Amino acid sequence: MVRHGETDWNIESRIQGKTDIELNEKGRRQAEELAAVLKKGYGIKRIYTSRQKRAAETAEIIGQQLGIRPEVKEGLEEIDFGKWEGHTWKQVREQFPKEYFIWHGNRRYEVPPEGESYQHLLNRLLPALDDIINRDGQDALNITHSAVIMTLMSYLYDTPFEDMARNYKTGNTQIVELDKELFYQRYNQT
């Protein structure tokens, strides 16, 4: 799993969610640098990506250097933060205090206004990963988003979703390796 490269909204600390923001120049350089690292020893045979521009562009840059055509995979998209997208977290707390308080107390199941919960995200992500793992057994690179990775890690390690940013904060183009044994151990319990 890899988070997409940097966007201008990352710099501005704006919530992106489903909003389709493109990479900035630094994000494109990050993707090129990551491709060089991956080329040296990861044995990637397939690349899957969220359909969102920032992930798809990251995947395209990496795919060109690795000689692999990226494939869009439904389920890898970022969480939908609804009306909160485009705002900073400080603005959300100020403009949606009641909704934020409720959501913040139970992030896994509560839904931001017109958005989706982390559980909704899991409901689409887990079958997508199951399909990727079972497709042909080859090592795959999944280009996705911060909340997707943090949600998955909270689920896999059974840690509170309210602590995901503290426990599993993921930088742009950061690699997070997923052990399929751990995935199936947890996936088959639910």
Describe the structure.
The protein is α/β, with parallel strands linked by helices. The chain has one domain (2-187): Rossmann fold, CATH 3.40.50.1240. Helices cover 48% and strands 7% of the residues. It has helices at residues 8-11, 25-39, 53-66, 89-95, 97-105, 118-136, 146-156, 164-168, 180-187; strands at residues 2-3, 46-49, 71-72, 140-144. The protein has a 4-stranded parallel β-sheet. It is globular. The mean pLDDT is 95.
Nearest-angstrom radius of gyration?
Answer: 16 Å
Into which percentage range does the β-strand content fall? 5-15%
**How many strands appear in the DSSP assignment?**
4
Order of helices and strands: EHHEHEHHHEHHH
Structural class: alpha/beta
**Poorly predicted sequence stretches spanning 5 or more consecutive residues:** none
Record the strand order, biggest sheet: 1-4-2-3
Largest sheet: 4 strands, parallel
Number of helices: 9
The CATH C-level name is: Alpha Beta
